[in-house]
Specification:
It contains 16 helices and no strands. It has 418 residues and is an all-alpha fold. It has a single domain (8-189, 212-403), classed as MFS general substrate transporter like domains (Growth Hormone, Chain: A, Up-down Bundle).
Length: 418
């Protein structure tokens, strides 16, 4: 008799596609920046402000979304998020003033994407898997890369052929079509299907009753601030956000445009990075189940830092430099997530992992917002992105050293005997 497929393998693809769609929404500003600059005359610093607000809310919603998933369920939270995204993204086609972009793309879209952030993957993996959590988290994290792979070239071609509004409606339609599928097929826990988590031999403890989701999230933050490992994980993840979607995800396409590279070709470069990131993040999940996660993070941040420091040189006359950057940086883009999730679960336990990772991820998005706005200001004031790339690369080298301190108690120097 054929072995019945565990329902986790229905849940994982649903979460994957949801994260993929949210990634498509979040990557859109990199394509829209130049068309909005041309149509409305807004500066990149002005547009970057809306992106920065969106990135901050995307991160800050994480811990509250984790508490919301405990309170109202994962399925309802996902469906609500997709509805907000479909309405908010489609409404951006009507904007005429910068404040409208800040409100719609910054506040509304930032809130909607924040409800389907990587904390969703961390929560689902901790509930549905007892073994192979790192591999499952690697696959779900890779959805961000696949979102770029699927949406960026399509959006770039839509912008070139039909205008930026057509590109926006493409991703709004994807969110609207996905919502009823999630509502019908998603389940909150294995127990709803009469199942144990994958690899489990006994039922997990009953879920904690957290009460008010806002208060529960704030209690988790208070616990985290007093924990040394939490501070290190949040600090390294701040730098992770600073050096990925805040800088490269938002400003690589405009930087390519500054060097005479057309938007469609630049979007193809980001999509290629998405392919390599899918490979690198999935492999990172597999490695995080087997190797020291601190050392993995140290290597990831080190390679990323070197790549960013030399990025400006890759915009030379030869196309090989940028493609070489796409390969190395792509393999490393969000490979940091599976080891960070595992280190969080080790420090706080699987029941608290989702919410604690939510706050760590919030630090990631604050870093991303700093880079999104800061790089826009640097480009407006200095005329290029060189300083932004070097500063982010140097920060990654600091994160590499910080990673090796996670999980180690500070050494206490005993006073010498008299």
């Amino acid at each position: 008799m054929a072995r019945k497929v565990h329902y986790a393998w229905v849940v994982v693809p649903l979460v994957f596609v949801t994260l993929l769609t949210a990634a498509g929404v979040r990557s859109a500003p990199g394509i829209l920046m130049v068309p909005l600059e041309g149509e409305f005359g807004w500066s990149r610093a002005t547009i970057s402000l809306a992106v920065s607000v969106s990135i901050i809310l995307y991160g800050l919603m994480g811990p509250f979304a984790a508490a919301l998933m405990e309170w109202m369920g994962v399925r309802r939270t996902m469906a609500l998020s997709l509805t907000i995204l479909a309405l908010g993204v489609s409404a951006t086609t009507l904007m005429r003033e910068p404040w409208q972009m800040v409100l719609l793309w910054g506040v509304v879209v930032g809130t909607g994407t924040g409800m389907t952030a990587l904390v969703l993957g961390a929560t689902v993996v901790s509930r549905w898997f007892d073994k192979g959590r790192g591999t499952a988290m690697g696959v779900l994290t890779a959805a961000t890369a696949t979102g770029q792979l699927v949406f960026l070239p399509l959006m770039a071609m839509a912008v070139e052929s039909y205008g930026w509004r057509a590109a926006v409606m493409l991703i709004a339609a994807a969110a609207a079509l996905l919502m009823p599928v999630v509502w019908l097929l998603m389940r909150d826990r294995p127990s709803e299907m009469g199942l144990l988590p994958v690899g489990a031999t006994e039922a997990p403890k009953p879920p904690l009753r957290m009460g008010n989701p806002v208060l529960a999230a704030l209690r988790a933050l208070r616990e985290g601030v007093g924990n040394r490992d939490f501070r290190l994980l949040a600090g390294t993840f701040f730098i992770c956000g600073l050096s990925t979607n805040g800088l490269i995800g938002t400003h690589l396409v405009p930087a390519c445009f500054d060097h005479g590279i057309p938007e469609v070709k630049a979007a193809g470069l980001l999509a290629a990075m998405g392919i390599f990131d899918f490979i690198g993040t999935t492999l990172s999940g597999w490695l995080s189940d087997r190797w020291d996660n601190r050392k993995l993070l140290a290597w990831y941040y080190g390679f990323r830092g070197v790549s960013l420091i030399f990025l400006d040189a890759a915009f030379g006359p030869s196309v090989y430099g940028l493609w070489l950057f796409a390969v190395f940086y792509g393999l490393d883009w969000i490979a940091t997530v599976p080891p960070t999730v595992r280190l969080t679960a080790k420090a706080f336990g699987p029941e608290k992992a989702g919410m604690m990772f939510g706050w760590i991820f919030a630090a990631h998005q604050v870093g991303a917002a700093v880079a999104a706005l800061g790089a826009g200001v640097i480009r407006t004031d200095l005329g290029d992105y060189w300083l932004a790339f070097v500063m982010a690369g140097s920060a990654c080298l600091v994160a590499s050293m910080m990673s090796m301190m996670i999980g180690r108690e500070p050494r206490i120097v005993q006073p010498e005997a008299a």
